[in-house]
Design a protein that fits this description.
This protein is α/β, with parallel strands linked by helices. Helix content is about 30%, strand content about 25%. The radius of gyration is 16 Å and the shape is globular.
């Protein structure tokens, strides 16, 4: 969280975290395409030759007021590939909340678990209390065949009582529900501190 008192702005950061090809970038692309231009900034994307996000996608959204400050949400994604662990940790610095994107397809559980573990590890290293930090879970790719059940995904990821949303980022199902939950969760946390 960063407050610009001169402009009356409250800058908040939400990071979309998850395994490679889980749908993090697709979420931001859908949000950007469906948000009025006067409420969003440009979508900045850095990609490799294989069209996978190398560092981050960035999108700025605005919404109502929080304690007479105008919140501006900056949305980022981390690279999902394991060899970009240092970049993922760097992008998590200064985050106010996380959307953890789970690939629901059978056969992707090991990647989901590894990503969840490293996310928790990075957040702890950055001084966050995992038990209270705003983390919203999105079960993505629910429109595909051969997906795992929600109870099985919850059990294998051991996500306890985290808020969870089913989604198909490609079709847009659940994308804004997930984003709203993340924004509300972050705002509730911020109201406790300012």
């Amino acid at each position: 969280m960063f407050i610009n008192w001169a402009l009356g702005e409250l800058n908040l950061k939400i990071v979309y975290y998850g395994a490679a090809l889980s749908g993090k970038t697709t979420n931001l692309q859908y949000i950007h395409a469906r948000t009025p231009a006067n409420l969003r900034g440009r979508l900045i994307s850095l990609k490799t030759q294989q069209e996978r996000t190398l560092l981050f996608d960035f999108l700025q959204l605005e919404m109502g007021k929080v304690n007479n400050l105008k919140p501006k949400f900056k949305l980022y994604t981390v690279p999902g590939q394991v060899y970009y662990a240092a970049s993922r940790r760097l992008i998590l610095q200064g985050t106010d909340g996380v959307v953890f994107v789970v690939d629901s397809q059978a056969g992707r559980m090991a990647e989901n678990q590894e990503s969840w573990y490293t996310m928790e590890e990075h957040l702890i290293e950055l001084g966050h209390d995992i038990s209270t930090f705003p983390i919203i879970v999105q079960f993505n790719k629910r429109d595909l065949p051969h997906i795992m059940s929600i109870p099985e995904l919850r059990r294998q990821l051991d996500i306890q009582k985290r808020p969870c949303y089913e989604a198909s980022a490609l079709r847009g199902n659940g994308v804004f529900d997930t984003l709203k939950a993340a924004m509300n969760s972050v705002v509730v946390q911020v109201r406790r501190t300012i």
